[in-house]
Specification:
With about 80 residues, the protein is mostly helical. Helix content is about 65%, strand content about 0%. The protein has five helices and no strands. The longest helix has 16 residues. It is globular.
Length: about 80
């Protein structure tokens, strides 16, 4: 996936996680589910090094904790790459 698209998606997820209303939380859950679904056009977990770099550059490493709920193996690898 294009780096710019990955970064845009990561930033949307980060913003969505900070929202507090039920409707906004639902939207976040839907977005992260798509981002972690191999069949989705928005699948983010193909290039873990690039994803880790984007997470780190944007201070969004905490999203790995949410990715864990959808793919614990990938979350573990991301944590290793990030040195967490």
């Amino acid at each position: 996936m294009n780096r710019m698209v990955v970064e845009e998606t990561v930033l949307k997820l980060a913003d969505g996680l900070l929202m507090s209303s039920t409707q906004e939380r639902y939207k976040f859950d839907k977005q992260i589910r798509k981002a972690c679904d191999r069949e989705s056009k928005r699948y983010l977990l193909d290039d873990l090094r690039t994803l880790a770099e984007i997470l780190k550059d944007n201070d969004c490493e905490y999203l790995v904790d949410r990715i864990f709920f959808y793919d614990d193996d990938v979350a573990q690898k991301l944590n290793e790459i990030l040195g967490r």
